[in-house]
UniProtKB/TrEMBL annotation:
GO molecular function, one term: nucleic acid binding
One protein family per Pfam: SpoVS
InterPro entries: Alba-like_dom_sf, SpoVS
Protein name (record): Stage V sporulation protein S
Domain of life: Bacteria
UniProt xrefs under Gene3D superfamilies: Alba-like domain
């Protein structure tokens, strides 16, 4: 087994208080669909707020195609401009994939009902 097969790819997204939650959500959804583990890093209350909104929005993007996600928060000590700061890091991984039929043709505009 090669090194890349042993350790999954990880994409780190740095979110600020000015980040667009919808844009970050699109990045999260795209990476999860590609099988990449996503880490989101935020420093400060405003950045954490935007990150949490992005995770919720990305769930809305992924759920209709059968992908549910799990989010695990943790602390990370980082250095910004020579100062030590504490960041909140969210690890987002697919929890499970449901077998949901994808709409085709004229049905493509209709939302797929969620099965719980």
């Amino acid at each position: 087994m090669s090194t890349s097969e042993q350790k999954p790819d990880v994409g780190c997204l740095k979110v600020s208080s000015k980040s667009s939650p919808a844009s970050v959500a699109g990045a999260i959804a795209g990476m999860v669909k590609d099988g990449v583990s996503v880490e989101i890093q935020a420093v400060g209350a405003g950045a954490v707020n935007q990150a949490v909104k992005a995770i919720a929005i990305s769930r809305g993007f992924l759920s209709p195609i059968g992908i549910e996600i799990a989010c695990v928060p943790s602390f990370a000590d980082i250095v910004i401009d020579g100062e030590y700061r504490t960041a909140i890091r969210f690890t987002v991984d697919p929890r499970y994939t449901r077998g949901v039929a994808q709409p085709l043709g004229d049905d493509a505009h209709r939302p797929v009902p969620e099965i719980r």
